[in-house]
Amino acid sequence: MAFCWAEDDFDLPKGVCRLGNLQPSNNTEYIMYHGTTRKNADTIRQGKFRQSGEEMMLGRGVYLSRDLNKASRYPIGHPDSDKVVIQVLVNVGRVIAINYQGHPRQKNWHDSRYGEVYDTAWVPPNCGMVKSGLEEDCVWDPNRIKILKIIRPTRVNASASGYM
Protein backbone atom coordinates (compact mmCIF):
# COMPACT_ATOMS: atom_id res chain seq x y z
CA MET A 1 0.00 0.00 0.00
CA ALA A 2 1.35 3.43 -0.94
CA PHE A 3 0.69 6.80 0.66
CA CYS A 4 0.17 10.23 -0.84
CA TRP A 5 -0.01 13.68 0.71
CA ALA A 6 -2.58 16.29 -0.18
CA GLU A 7 -3.81 19.61 1.07
CA ASP A 8 -7.47 20.44 1.15
CA ASP A 9 -7.02 24.14 1.88
CA PHE A 10 -7.03 26.07 -1.35
CA ASP A 11 -8.32 29.24 0.32
CA LEU A 12 -5.52 31.00 2.16
CA PRO A 13 -6.14 33.33 5.09
CA LYS A 14 -6.07 37.04 4.23
CA GLY A 15 -2.53 38.34 3.82
CA VAL A 16 -0.92 34.88 3.65
CA CYS A 17 1.30 34.02 0.67
CA ARG A 18 1.40 30.80 -1.32
CA LEU A 19 4.53 28.73 -1.98
CA GLY A 20 7.04 30.16 -4.36
CA ASN A 21 10.72 29.85 -5.12
CA LEU A 22 11.43 33.47 -4.22
CA GLN A 23 12.97 34.44 -0.89
CA PRO A 24 10.28 34.96 1.74
CA SER A 25 9.55 38.67 2.16
CA ASN A 26 10.33 40.26 5.51
CA ASN A 27 7.43 40.47 7.98
CA THR A 28 5.13 38.35 5.82
CA GLU A 29 2.99 35.42 6.91
CA TYR A 30 3.36 32.12 5.09
CA ILE A 31 1.80 28.70 5.28
CA MET A 32 4.62 26.28 6.04
CA TYR A 33 4.97 22.61 6.95
CA HIS A 34 6.87 20.51 9.46
CA GLY A 35 7.21 16.75 8.97
CA THR A 36 7.34 14.57 12.08
CA THR A 37 5.94 11.42 13.68
CA ARG A 38 2.40 11.13 15.02
CA LYS A 39 3.70 10.97 18.60
CA ASN A 40 5.89 14.06 18.19
CA ALA A 41 3.00 15.93 16.57
CA ASP A 42 0.85 15.23 19.65
CA THR A 43 3.61 16.58 21.90
CA ILE A 44 4.04 19.70 19.74
CA ARG A 45 0.27 20.30 19.74
CA GLN A 46 0.14 20.15 23.54
CA GLY A 47 2.89 22.74 23.94
CA LYS A 48 4.69 24.38 21.08
CA PHE A 49 7.60 23.78 18.80
CA ARG A 50 11.08 23.57 20.31
CA GLN A 51 14.29 24.57 18.63
CA SER A 52 16.48 21.89 17.08
CA GLY A 53 20.11 21.70 18.18
CA GLU A 54 23.25 23.57 17.13
CA GLU A 55 24.42 20.60 15.04
CA MET A 56 21.68 21.17 12.44
CA MET A 57 22.45 22.75 9.04
CA LEU A 58 21.41 26.26 10.13
CA GLY A 59 22.03 25.81 13.84
CA ARG A 60 19.25 26.16 16.40
CA GLY A 61 15.69 26.89 15.31
CA VAL A 62 12.49 25.27 14.08
CA TYR A 63 12.92 23.70 10.64
CA LEU A 64 10.03 24.18 8.24
CA SER A 65 9.39 24.35 4.53
CA ARG A 66 6.86 26.11 2.33
CA ASP A 67 6.90 22.89 0.30
CA LEU A 68 4.55 20.13 1.51
CA ASN A 69 6.49 17.62 -0.60
CA LYS A 70 9.69 18.42 1.31
CA ALA A 71 8.06 18.24 4.77
CA SER A 72 6.32 14.95 3.98
CA ARG A 73 9.75 13.25 3.66
CA TYR A 74 10.49 13.74 7.37
CA PRO A 75 11.55 12.14 9.52
CA ILE A 76 13.73 10.44 6.92
CA GLY A 77 13.79 6.65 7.23
CA HIS A 78 10.59 6.54 9.27
CA PRO A 79 7.57 4.55 7.92
CA ASP A 80 5.08 6.70 5.99
CA SER A 81 2.24 5.18 8.00
CA ASP A 82 3.52 6.96 11.15
CA LYS A 83 4.44 10.29 9.56
CA VAL A 84 2.36 13.43 9.72
CA VAL A 85 2.89 16.98 8.52
CA ILE A 86 1.98 19.90 10.74
CA GLN A 87 0.64 22.83 8.74
CA VAL A 88 1.55 26.14 10.36
CA LEU A 89 1.20 29.87 9.86
CA VAL A 90 4.50 31.73 10.29
CA ASN A 91 5.37 35.40 10.42
CA VAL A 92 8.94 35.15 9.15
CA GLY A 93 10.11 38.53 10.50
CA ARG A 94 13.50 39.47 9.06
CA VAL A 95 14.82 36.88 6.59
CA ILE A 96 18.35 36.08 5.48
CA ALA A 97 19.17 33.81 2.54
CA ILE A 98 21.81 31.18 3.32
CA ASN A 99 22.65 30.00 -0.18
CA TYR A 100 25.91 28.07 0.11
CA GLN A 101 27.73 25.80 2.55
CA GLY A 102 30.10 27.76 4.75
CA HIS A 103 28.07 30.98 4.49
CA PRO A 104 29.46 33.32 7.19
CA ARG A 105 26.01 33.58 8.84
CA GLN A 106 25.01 29.92 8.37
CA LYS A 107 24.70 29.16 12.09
CA ASN A 108 24.73 32.60 13.71
CA TRP A 109 22.05 34.49 11.73
CA HIS A 110 20.07 35.10 14.95
CA ASP A 111 23.02 36.31 17.06
CA SER A 112 23.72 40.06 17.35
CA ARG A 113 27.40 39.39 18.14
CA TYR A 114 27.89 38.60 14.44
CA GLY A 115 25.95 41.47 12.85
CA GLU A 116 22.32 42.03 11.99
CA VAL A 117 19.78 39.79 13.70
CA TYR A 118 17.39 37.72 11.57
CA ASP A 119 14.25 35.84 12.59
CA THR A 120 14.33 33.30 9.77
CA ALA A 121 17.08 31.72 7.71
CA TRP A 122 16.00 30.60 4.24
CA VAL A 123 17.80 28.05 2.07
CA PRO A 124 16.79 28.60 -1.58
CA PRO A 125 15.92 25.64 -3.80
CA ASN A 126 18.72 24.10 -5.86
CA CYS A 127 21.52 26.07 -4.18
CA GLY A 128 23.50 22.99 -3.13
CA MET A 129 22.73 23.23 0.59
CA VAL A 130 20.02 20.56 0.64
CA LYS A 131 20.38 17.19 -1.11
CA SER A 132 16.73 17.23 -2.30
CA GLY A 133 17.15 20.65 -3.91
CA LEU A 134 13.98 21.84 -2.13
CA GLU A 135 13.74 25.04 -0.11
CA GLU A 136 13.99 25.07 3.65
CA ASP A 137 13.36 27.63 6.38
CA CYS A 138 14.61 27.83 9.96
CA VAL A 139 12.63 30.03 12.35
CA TRP A 140 14.45 31.13 15.50
CA ASP A 141 11.48 31.91 17.77
CA PRO A 142 8.81 29.18 18.10
CA ASN A 143 6.34 31.91 19.15
CA ARG A 144 6.28 33.08 15.52
CA ILE A 145 4.64 29.76 14.58
CA LYS A 146 0.92 29.03 14.88
CA ILE A 147 -0.24 25.43 14.36
CA LEU A 148 -3.16 25.23 11.92
CA LYS A 149 -3.71 21.51 11.44
CA ILE A 150 -2.21 18.06 11.13
CA ILE A 151 -2.08 16.49 7.66
CA ARG A 152 -2.01 12.70 7.60
CA PRO A 153 -1.02 10.69 4.53
CA THR A 154 -3.81 9.07 2.55
CA ARG A 155 -3.55 5.40 1.64
CA VAL A 156 -3.82 4.79 -2.07
CA ASN A 157 -3.87 1.59 -4.09
CA ALA A 158 -0.62 1.92 -6.02
CA SER A 159 -1.80 0.02 -9.10
CA ALA A 160 -5.16 1.80 -9.35
CA SER A 161 -3.76 5.29 -8.80
CA GLY A 162 -1.02 5.08 -11.39
CA TYR A 163 1.75 5.35 -8.80
CA MET A 164 4.72 2.97 -9.01
Structural class: mainly beta
H/E element order: EEEHEHEEEEEEH
- Write down the overall mean pLDDT: 86
Lateral arrangement of strands in the main beta sheet: 2-3-5-9
Helix content: 10-25%
Strand content: 25-35%
First-to-last CA distance: 11 Å
Number of strands: 10
The main β sheet shows up as:
4 strands, mixed
Counting DSSP H or I runs of 4 or more residues, the number of helices is 3
Radius of gyration: 16 Å
The backbone outline, from C-alpha atoms, is: globular
Uncertain spans: none
Give structural notes.
The structure is a single chain. With 164 residues, the protein is mainly beta. It has three helices and ten strands, in the order βββαβαββββββα. Strands 2-3-5-9 form a four-stranded mixed sheet. The protein has a four-stranded mixed sheet with strand order 4-8-7-6, with no helix packed on it. The protein has a two-stranded antiparallel ribbon with strand order 1-10. The termini are close together.
Could you list some keywords that capture this structure?
four-stranded mixed sheet; 164 residues; globular
Describe how the helices and strands are arranged.
Blueprint: E1 2-4, E2 16-17, E3 29-37, H1 38-46, E4 62-64, H2 68-71, E5 83-91, E6 95-97, E7 120-123, E8 136-139, E9 145-151, E10 154-156, H3 158-161
Parallel strand pairs: 2-3, 6-7
Antiparallel strand pairs: 1-10, 3-5, 4-8, 5-9, 7-8
